[in-house]
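Key result, reporting period 2: structure in, sequence out.
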């Protein structure tokens, strides 16, 4: 589209407005800014007070602004369309604003293009020539898991996509970019230091293989918990590792930096010797090992069907319409060896791989399966009627009650659905009203049993709200 060589191009900004004249741009107008220290940046004007003076801020992004007291001059970026200039062959200098005698101006050059695989450094604030011929500016924000990025120019991450930018050049280094440069330099220094880390002989007298320390802690655990294994210990996460930090090996836990996926090492600081760390590992993993007794987890054997049948029969007592055909699109369970230990594993019906389903006992596993089967049973039972009791404003621990609906199911049973939320999020839960509730001879006695399942203090409506409701009483068959 444009035939000008951006590498040779210079933009000359003239006709700046002095802040001292209190001659300010329109609200929201995006401007090139000269700071009192001689640096250049950009932002959109947001005056304070009645907007008649020079007090306010030029906003560059979320929590990223420049106070007008720091500004010397401004020049609007919104008044230009360079399309025709950039279509002329040989153009290498464009004056923005008339250059008259005594006029103070500034030139920007050394433009680069994404077409040449050139990208700004992260957090670098840049002047932009857009593909539609307009001018803009923004702070480069590279995407975490992808190769691209965008120029942020306003709050709420409003940005110019890189595919809309024809050419860019950096403006001055600001505090955010300086901090990013320092972070990058620190990463380089850390990488250099960690090439040949030193080893404290007291801390690492058993070497730098973390499994050696886990195994020594394992010997102590087995004195009390004979079933203890190394994989069992490492269920307690995050696991401990030996990693270089500031040029020396440490015992540490490693997490990922949210912004660039680099490793963050959090060192162990509760002792200074290898044996102290082994004692710590013993205490750190003890609870996990204690609750991983295979005799408790697999007390009904290692045939998964035994556990699934128990769960099915328990659910069937109340969810009388349940049959095994209804469980086609739910979790699949099994008992398999993982890293040498037997584990309950599960995968969703349309997934290909199992993952460990870590529970401490057979009873707890059966309870989890029961919850799964109950959910599927309710989904399979068609709704034939509903009643929504009236209620006013009800606040529940910062959430507002939004819906509270009783449903009659095709089987003749009932459930209730409760929805609550705040200004930004919300959630719903369904509760099956068990046959035990309907064994009550009176409506009042029914409510006493029902409110044990859906208590008023947790879900909004209590006995005082529901007892006078004759329509609900009739809907429930009383």
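The corresponding designed sequence is given below.
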């Amino acid at each position: 589209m444009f035939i000008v060589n951006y590498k040779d191009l210079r933009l000359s900004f003239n006709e700046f407005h002095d802040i001292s004249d209190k001659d300010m741009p329109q609200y929201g107008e995006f401007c090139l800014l000269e700071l009192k220290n001689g640096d250049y940046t950009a932002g959109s004007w947001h005056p304070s007070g009645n907007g008649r003076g020079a007090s306010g801020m030029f906003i560059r992004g979320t929590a990223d602004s420049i106070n007008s007291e720091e500004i010397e001059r401004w020049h609007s970026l919104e008044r230009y369309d360079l399309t025709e200039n950039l279509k002329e062959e040989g153009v290498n200098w464009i004056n923005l604003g008339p250059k008259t005698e005594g006029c103070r101006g500034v030139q920007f050059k050394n433009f680069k293009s994404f077409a040449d695989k050139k990208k700004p450094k992260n957090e670098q604030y840049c002047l932009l020539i857009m593909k539609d011929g307009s001018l803009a500016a923004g702070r480069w924000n590279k995407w975490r898991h992808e190769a691209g990025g965008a120029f942020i120019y306003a709050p709420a991450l409003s940005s110019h996509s890189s595919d809309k930018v024809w050419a860019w050049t950096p403006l001055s280094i600001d505090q955010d970019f300086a901090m990013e440069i320092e972070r990058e330099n620190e990463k380089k220094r850390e990488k250099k230091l960690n090439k040949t880390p030193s080893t404290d002989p007291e801390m690492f007298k058993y070497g730098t293989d973390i499994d050696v320390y886990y195994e020594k802690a394992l010997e102590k655990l087995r004195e009390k918990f004979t079933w203890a294994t190394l994989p069992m210990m490492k269920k307690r996460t995050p696991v401990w590792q030996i990693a270089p930090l500031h040029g020396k090996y440490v015992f540490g836990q490693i997490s990922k930096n949210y912004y660039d996926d680099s490793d963050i090492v959090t060192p162990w600081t509760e002792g200074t010797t290898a044996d102290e760390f082994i004692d710590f590992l013993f205490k750190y993993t003890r609870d996990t090992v204690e609750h991983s007794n295979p005799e408790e987890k697999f007390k009904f054997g290692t045939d998964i069907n035994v556990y699934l049948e128990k769960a099915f029969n328990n659910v069937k007592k109340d969810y009388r319409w349940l049959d095994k055909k209804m469980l086609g699109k739910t979790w699949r369970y099994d008992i398999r060896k993982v890293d040498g230990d037997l584990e309950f594993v599960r995968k969703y019906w349309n997934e290909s791989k199992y993952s460990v389903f870590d529970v401490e006992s057979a009873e707890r596993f059966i309870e989890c399966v029961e919850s799964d089967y109950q959910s599927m049973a309710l989904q399979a039972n068609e709704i034939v009627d509903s009643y929504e009791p009236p209620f006013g404003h009800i606040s529940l621990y910062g959430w507002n009650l939004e819906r509270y609906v009783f449903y009659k199911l095709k089987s003749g049973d009932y459930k209730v659905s409760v929805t609550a939320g705040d200004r930004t999020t919300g959630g719903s839960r369904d509760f099956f009203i068990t046959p035990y509730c309907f064994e009550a001879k009176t409506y009042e006695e029914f409510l006493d049993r029902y409110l044990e399942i859906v208590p008023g203090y947790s879900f909004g409506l209590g006995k005082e709200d529901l007892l006078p409701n004759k329509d609900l009483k009739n809907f429930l068959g009383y």
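The chain has four domains: 6-175, 210-291, 296-378, 383-475. Residues 175-193 form the longest helix (19 residues). This case is discussed further under Risks and Mitigation.
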